[in-house]
Write a structure and sequence with these properties.
The complex is a heterotrimer of chains A (290), B (425) and C (281). Chain A has 290 residues and is mainly alpha-helical. Chain A has twelve helices and two strands. In chain A, strand 1 and strand 2 form a beta hairpin. In chain A, helix 1 packs antiparallel against helix 12 and helix 5 packs across helix 10. Helices cover 44% and strands 12% of the residues of chain B. In chain B, helix 2 runs antiparallel to helix 13 and helix 15 packs antiparallel against helix 16. The chains are: A mainly alpha (290), B alpha/beta (425), C mainly alpha (281).
Chain lengths: 290, 425, 281
Amino acid sequence: MRDKKKVNIKPWLFIVPSLVLITLFVFYPMIQAFITSLQTGMGNNLKFSGAANYKRLLTDSTFRKALFNTVLYLIVQVPIMILLALAISSMLNDKRLKCKGFFRTAIFLPCVTSLVAYSIIFKSLFATDGFVNAMLMNLHIIDAPIAWITTTGFARALIIIAITWRWTGYNMIFYLAGLQGIDDSVYEAAAIDGATGFQKFRYMTLPLLKPIILFTTINSTIGTLQLFDEPMNITSGGPANATITISQYIYNLLFKYQPNFGYAAAVSYVIVVLIVILSFIQMKVGDDKE
Amino acid sequence: MKAKKVIAAALTASMVLAGAVPAMAEDGGSKITIWAWDENFNIKAANEAKEIYQKAHPDVEVEVVTMAQDDIVAKLNTSLSSQSYDGLPDVVLIEDYKIQGYLTSYPDEFEEFTDVLKAEDFAEYKTGVNVVDGKLYGVPFDSGVAATFYRKDMIEEAGYTEEDMQNLTWDKYIEIGQAVKEKCGVDMCTLDPSDIGQIRMMMQSAGVWYTDADGNVSISNNQGLKDAITTYKKLVDAGITKQVADWDQFVGAFNKGEVASVVTGCWIASSVKAAEDQNGKWGVAAFPKMSENEASVNASSIGGAAWYVLKNVGNAETAKDFVATTFGQDVDLMNQLAEDIALVSTLNAAADVPNYSKGSDFFGGQEIFNDFTQWTSEVPSVNYGMHTYALEDIMTEAVQAIVGGADMDQTLEEYQAQAEAAVMQ
Amino acid sequence: MSKKSKVLRTLEYVILSILSIVSIFPFFWMIIAATNKSVDVSKGTLLPGTYFMENLRTLLDSDLNYLGAFKNSLVIAVLTTAIAMVVSSAAGYAFQIYKSKGRDVVFNFILLSMMVPFAALMVPLFRLFTKFRNIPVLKFVALDTPGSVIIIAVATAFLIFFFRQNTKTFPKELVEAARIDGLGEFGIFTRIFMPTMKSTYAAAVVVTFMSSWNNYLWPLIALQSGGKRTLPLIISAMGSSYTPDYGMMMTAVVIATIPTALIFFLMQKQFVAGMTGSVKG
């Protein structure tokens, strides 16, 4: 390239606006939050106290619960949702499928359904005398109604069901967008070679979608580690903090309880560290050698 | 290319709209803003107060803003901790459970009322939370006095009378509940395992709280709390409760006639009345006391709030005058509010207003306001301290454990330590 | 032509139909609730009522200024989405197309910004914004203006990452070819990349609009006067009543859902449109 110099400056012109905004509105507050995490005190009367807040984490049983729940949601929910979204989008990408528009819209709708509405309806569907129990009993899957919202294990399951319900359609659209980048001729050639649907999915769709799958996995990981809406609105973190997440705990420390800005910031940094580690692993596993 | 056109049109439209938003005029000294959270209740009250105040002070502009209670808390904390006053209200309604935290964290932000109002003019338990060093920092608003709302028809079917509901104890309540369950097939009340408001009410009826008078965590050596948990366990074990998981289901249960009683703050009256088909079937009795606790009385409280004036926002003088002359002393306003929003005032002088001795048709002609006011004056005063919600979350776990069969003393011992750690600043 | 057996095909329809019903049900309930009286909503009715106009009237008559909030939300969401599509996609594109020194370091640095829970940043961010008030050039992003909400949402690690990942499927030969044709770097981005990646942009528009439309915590803190508030704040204010009017609330949320659903409708054609001819050729 003759104009190599030009090419070297231009890329940064594309990037600089974003970089400036993110530095100012994320990194600067992040550093401030870190400084706050080293302080204790009340209201605006804070004093430096070193690692006191971080030490406190070690003995805080609510924090342990929140950490356990958050990791549990992550391990169980993210894989289920990603696989489901992938399966749905590849079904929907089939040229010969009828009513595609309807299915696509219907499955996307959960993520635009108002949180207020959907938490009310989920609570009523999963009430002890609600629709879900009635159905399960009619099908003889269970003998006695399950107390979904008030039994620890079932309440956690309910949260997982709720997040999956809400976000699968959302992830689906990333895959649909990604699938458009795959040339039909690739599939046609494979069809001539006698590849089955599953083989096409496994050996062609998956590798070609890899960058997007990596993206949605990291994104869902972050979303789950910062999970707040569902436990807040469906179980209020209950029964007895059994479904509380780290983000909800941060919110409680900031606003529900007597505000403790320093300790809340310290808890936040635990999430940051967790996400950085997990994203790093996912990037390493997911990155293809280009 | 259709999409492009749509986008272009949307962009143009939004630019126009953005430009059309008029800049807020910078006001002089005569505008005050009020924040509260219930369109059907405290917001209406603020608007009526505004109307009255503006008759006397036509030059004062009053803006009343509805905002979720959690949102008010978030905004106050963010702004006050940054000492940034732009956009904060002059007058704000704050829940009794929360105010101690504000007064302690931001001691120089709240206006005091001692020179214009007397704490003795309000229900004693209300000023228990907002008088600091003898100074009154807010004007008490609604009473959260607890009451037992019950279905007269069901109680009678079970073989009891209204007489039996007087001087009620929890033991008697459970006994009636068992009869109701047997005869009518409905539960006595709802129970939300994530919300132990019932225990809070029982505790206050015995004059204690999660914290002692000095604000120290008091769990393992708190007889009142132990009695409350014992009573609560009896209620659960009796099998006469319907489990609910949120407010909507709680309201739905009595609106649908699935429970025979509701024991909570008097503010629930308007939700009870919403089920028009149950007109005349309801009665109201005082809060049940705990028979095993000597100190426990037939009166308690749950919820309730007071008006506060933020000192450094701008128009503290006007705001203070507004709150003091309306909610602080206007008996006619209280009379009107009893009619319009069923407010049970905590201003002592309101006890004699005409609307309080009107019978309520829905409650079979019972003078419910007189009863509420009477009970309000009997509520034991407790210091809620700064950590009610933090301690409540921890205690919910403890209570679940004990109800599930864990040893009370040992469990409370463990949770005492946990609670002390949780309230550390 | 299809190798799929009839059984498999039928199974596909059955699965998709079940998923659709499960997905739609709460949405359907929300609409039903909007047509009923509050007390009937609490009682759990599933039949359409006749109370919609009444609920609508209550909503519009309320002091909360629903229409004003709708307008505020629309302005913020449309401007955020439009600006974000340019700013963030440019960065995502550049991170993938150009190989320069330090690229990956900077990219990972940007990714890091996704990882902090927003609640933790809120107070420091608020303090930062309080300083803008006195700087004339920053007036348009000062607190209590739509700008303060827009500016923090136009460059997000999420979008940059998304565009970078999608650019991986974008054929680099197109860039080379365009350079040979004498097109400048910005020209390549706007005239080749943007039209080619329509379905990527469509997905990005949908999710950006949606997150801006539903954004809660920052608008809550940044927008101060009652008249500047957005829809989620207003709806939250309705829900905090001791005696919530569920009928009115559901009417409010149904109307609030329309724009995002509409955007999805408009954009979804792009998901099936496929790449433009220039790529295939």
